[in-house]
Design a protein that fits this description.
The chain is an alpha/beta fold. It has 20 helices and 27 strands. The longest helix is centred in the C-terminal third of the chain and has 20 residues, at 567-586. The mean pLDDT is 94. The structure holds 5-amino-5-deoxy-1-O-phosphono-D-mannitol. Residues 296-299, 343-345, 348, 351, 394-396, 479, 483, 600 line the site of 5-amino-5-deoxy-1-O-phosphono-D-mannitol (M6R).
Length: 603
Amino acid sequence: MCGIIGYVGTGKTADILMRSLKLLEYRGYDSSGVAFCCGKNTEIYKCTDRVSVLEKKIQGRAEGSHCAIGHTRWATHGSVSEKNAHPHRSGRVTLVHNGIIENYKELIQLYHLKEKLVSTGDSEVAAALIDRFYDDDPLKAIREASKQIRGTYALVMMFEGREDEIFAVCKVSPIVIAQNEEGRILASDLSALTGTYENYFVLPEDTIVRLSMDDLCLYDLSGKKKAPYWKKMEQQDRALDKKGHPYYMEKEIFEQGTALRNTLEPRIREGLPDFSADGIEGELFASHHHIVICACGTSYHAGLLAKRVFESFGRIKCDVFLSSEFIYEKPFMEKDALIIVISQSGETIDSLQALKIAKEEGHETLAIVNVRDSSIARNADYVLYTHAGMEIAVASTKAYTSQLSLLYLLAYRFALCEQERKEKVMEKIRELKKVPDAIEAACRDKERYAGLAGILKDEKDLYMIGRGRDYPLLMEAALKMKEISYIHCEAYAAGELKHGPIALIEKDTPVIACISQEDLLGKAASNIKEVRARGARVYAFVRESLAKQLDMKIEVFPLKDLEDELMPFSAIAAFQLLAYYTALEKGVDVDKPRNLAKVVTVE
Ligand code: M6R
């Protein structure tokens, strides 16, 4: 959470900063701010609004500046206010921070910093502490402060009296750095590095970097110089163009067909799953007999669905954990368990920690991530990238279906470990290849979902019921609905209704029932009857080929036909659209729902 940027160079500093901050805004958008080095002075501008508002505020300012730092905030400590917005200035130090300083209260006491602070957060304490240690040697001050600070941080600083120089240090929270003929840039992630950069490197933990107009130097915490480990910059898909869609979320829903094709095609050879181009050979599948999935939010929901495919078709035991609970559950894992961490951003701190714990315990780890070279990708033994393209809307859509498609493919690969399943796997792959078209067909039905959204928009509570694979699928559908439309929406396993949730049903309670699995039609229909008998208003999302068999006077939304196991793909497209249009009807900012951020780097 929080995006940080720093630039030194001859380019148009303000323009570079604003462009990068807009690209980082998905990490947090409670407030934003910039600090320009203007000769001997530092000019700071902040606002408790979006970067576009900050941009207006700085128009015509700091025009001759060649050095600046910037920040877009997701509030952790301290309310959303200008004084809590970054950059923070304390004495001769101006700083932006991403992460959490856990011992900030102790530091205030220990170093008598209280009088120096104007904000109520943890970040300004870092600035005050570094200033306390500063005697014209920035490296020494940062070194001393780093030894005292506990927590996660990416700190980027400018020091009074040191024109056109930026310093940075990090622990857990990432910083990437690049340079070209014009100058040097650093940021929280690669997506913000606009410009023609051929190479970049990731700042190692406990390393200080100094960027100046003509130089770039790295030092470890004992003051010794280090060499950066440069990597080639891949073509960045910055996807800032909404391509005619009013919101990124709609664009990303519509891009799912392409995202899935790009994710699947390079991993299918001669009709069978093949991960050798990802550096994963057959041994990996043969040597593991237990899969443990750790993930959060939507990625966790992908894991829940995948478990059913791993176990029923892949014939491998699979357990799924919320990364944030994995640490406490202390689950039993077979010695040869393969830990799969799923994360769109590759930066979710809980998932990163789960991965590190699994590694410490000696397990092999595989990451499924969308963002190249993200922290989870860098820390895992193996990486499978979803090629979904950059996902900007906070509500995850194309990343989810891409993750799911890869997980299915992995399950099919595990199935090949058993003799005589080649034909069956080939058949599965042929079906899987139909998924992108089915999702695109569902998108063409958008008007239907927009119509239902108009009816649901004022509801306070909404329930979703389904059996089998439809249950984990509806958990994802309900998350989509609540995170962007703010309607309280819960998914229940339909068989569980009688064990409690049915008490919530009264006259006119809206219930969405999903029936995508052929063998569950009868039982699911009974559940619809039960809630209708108690007055519920039911909308049924039913697999097209089953719709006629559901002989009830209720509104039916047909779902594009795929084989049973793959039905969640066509169903989720419908539910994503329903959530999207409901949010649109409510007039909220669909891409940036309240209180959320795209990248969750705090526990
Ligand atoms: O980047 P990750 O996949 O690790 O993120 C996990 C969750 O924060 C994320 O899926 C979140 O639930 C989305 N906003 C859901 O749309």
